Amino acid sequence: MKIIVDSKEKLNKLAAEMIAGHVSEKPDCAVAFAAGNTPVGVYEELANMQNVDFSKCEAFNICEYEHLAADDERSCANQLKAQLYSKLGITKIHTPTAENAEGFDAEIASCGGLEMILLGIGTNGHIGFNEPATLFATETHVAQLTDKTKQMKAEHFGGSENVPDTAVTMGLKTICSAKNVILMAFGEEKAEIVHKLVYGKTSTYVPAAMLQMHMNMTLMLDPEAASKLD
């Protein structure tokens, strides 16, 4: 695991450059993107790049809430389309659903596997919507969201009671199978879980800790998120 601590602005630019580098080398590669607040700055940097053609890229959404239409403004698919895909001309978009979950990993494999995946992390350690105690061998599946996760998403849905109870997500095995991983965390509220990710035991009770074993994992932190690291 490589750890980089810097300002959010510099990390957003660095992550965008890393993604663009892989796409430049392999224009039709598969890249997985997370929705949410953490990667928005990366997407802004990517959208401003003029010298990289992303149009042949195979884009995989990491997760999606159940029972939301793709054009629902609260859906992960809609957020990524508005923030990233529409600006980069990406049209080959793959979204996990309850109907295609069983074959989603095969869909990834048919595109040559994930060249890169960009992740955030929840304060309970979830990546994608793999909640604590998710089995490592899990592939794309329907996940029950914890109350803590629903509280984290409450503002986006106008209250935790409006957050869907379930979501479809790439599993831990799916995520860890990506050739390259970037995980970003910003803010003091992420400091405790970042400490567990870096120093804790490899345990599915902290799902992100499974990435300790990944050979090409880059952890990008602002000083606040890194404040509890030695």
Present the secondary structure layout.
Layout: E1 2-5, H1 8-25, E2 30-33, H2 40-47, E3 58-61, E4 63-65, H3 76-88, E5 92-94, H4 101-110, E6 114-119, E7 141-144, H5 147-152, H6 154-157, E8 166-169, H7 172-176, E9 181-185, H8 191-199, E10 217-221
Parallel strand pairs: 1-10, 2-3, 2-6, 3-5, 6-9, 9-10
Antiparallel strand pairs: 4-8, 7-8
Characterise the protein shown here:
With 230 residues, the protein is α/β, with parallel strands linked by helices. Helix content is 32%, strand content 18%. The chain contains eight helices and ten strands. The strands form two sheets. The protein has a seven-stranded parallel sheet with strand order 1-10-9-6-2-3-5, with helices on one face. A three-stranded antiparallel sheet has the order 4-8-7, with no helix packed on it. β9, α8 and β10 form a beta-alpha-beta unit. α1 packs across α2 and α2 packs parallel to α3.
What descriptors fit this protein?
230 residues; alpha/beta; seven-stranded parallel beta sheet; three-stranded antiparallel beta sheet; 32% helix; globular
